[in-house]
Structures are given as C-alpha cells and as structure tokens.
Specification:
It is a single chain. The protein is α+β, with helices and mostly antiparallel strands. The chain contains 5 helices and 11 strands, in the order ααββββββββββααβα. The strands form 2 sheets. Strands 3, 4, 5, 6, 7, 8, 9 and 10 form an 8-stranded antiparallel sheet that branches. It has a 3-stranded antiparallel sheet with strand order 1-2-11.
C-alpha cells in the first residue's frame, strides 16, 4: 500500500510541467529589482533592488549647493546613485514629457560597461537616478532599469521651493536651529 501511494504521487507530479531553475531564478531576480523602498525628505520616493545598501560615507546633504546624494551599492555589481538638487531648474528642450513627468535619459560608456541615468525635472528641483556598473554583474540590473525608473514618484510638496517637503518635519529641531545649530 505504501508503494501504491508513492507511485500515485509520482504519477501526479509527472503531469505537472517540469520546473526550469533558470526561469525561477529569473522571476525571483525580477521581483527583487524593486523590492526596497527609499524615501527622501527632499521630495521623492523610489524603489531599488533588495540587495542595494546605502553607503553613508558617500551620501549626504550639501547645504551650500543645495543637493543631496545617496549612493546605494550593489555588492560586486555597481551603484545606484540618487542626486536631488533643490532650486530653480532649467528643463532641457530635449526632455520627454508625459502627463505626470518630465525627464531626460542619458547613457555613458565606461570601462566597466554602460552607465545609465534618468533625470526627472520640476521647476523647483531635479532628481537624477544613475546606474553605474563595476562590471558584467550589473547587467541584470541595467536590463531592468526601467522598473527602477518607473517606481520614481514625486512627493507632495516637491513643486515648492522648500528644501524638506515633508510637512511638519525638520532634520534639526527648531530650538537647536535658534541656537545656530543645523542650519
């Protein structure tokens, strides 16, 4: 009887299509391309690969030039760099305009492969998303770059001239700013 049940299980599974490990890995990889959500008080949200880690030593806000750079490292593959510049922005004539977004795509040949970037524009700020390869391991991410770009969203208040668009938030409490700290 045990043999009969085992045989039945084999018969049932043989009717199912065989699993293709490459296809399964490909689907898992595609799902992980936009698995992590990032948010900036400077006016945008986006999604990036699950394996991307913020490099805090190369990221931060430059108060004299009014830009924030965030460098996310994909180990042994490359980097995804977000740069938001706050201030009046000149939108290039070559920009693509949709109902919701104005942007420019750009690619550059590097010694490690093609670097891809897209810059989104508002009258008050711009956000550049760059995919910089270290080598061939970045290829799966650059193939899916439009999924990263298409996850980009402006936050409410991004079309104002405020640096931090999140209402009611300050990086440094007002009491410390009154003492001349954090300006």
């Amino acid at each position: 009887m045990l043999f009969g049940m085992k045989g039945m299980a084999i018969a049932q599974t043989s009717a199912l299509p065989p699993l293709d490990p490459d296809s399964l890995a490909s689907e898992v990889a595609k799902d992980s391309i936009v698995a992590q959500s990032i948010e900036s008080r400077k006016g945008y949200v986006a999604r990036i690969p699950k394996s991307a880690c913020l490099d805090s030593t190369r990221s931060g806000w430059n108060p004299t030039k009014n830009y924030e750079r965030r460098v996310y490292v994909l180990e042994k593959a490359g980097e995804i760099i977000f740069t938001v510049t706050v201030g009046p922005t000149e939108i290039p004539e070559s920009a693509t305009e949709t109902q919701a977004y104005t942007y420019v795509d750009h690619d550059t040949l590097t010694s490690a492969g093609t670097a891809w970037s897209r810059t989104y524009y508002l009258a008050t700020r711009s956000v550049s998303i760059e995919l910089i390869p270290y080598g061939i391991a970045m290829h799966p991410y650059t193939l899916e770059r439009n999924r990263i770009y298409n996850s980009f969203r402006w936050k409410p208040g991004a079309n104002t001239d405020r640096i931090d668009v999140d209402s009611g938030t300050n990086a440094v409490p007002d009491i410390l700013q009154q003492k001349g700290l954090g300006k």
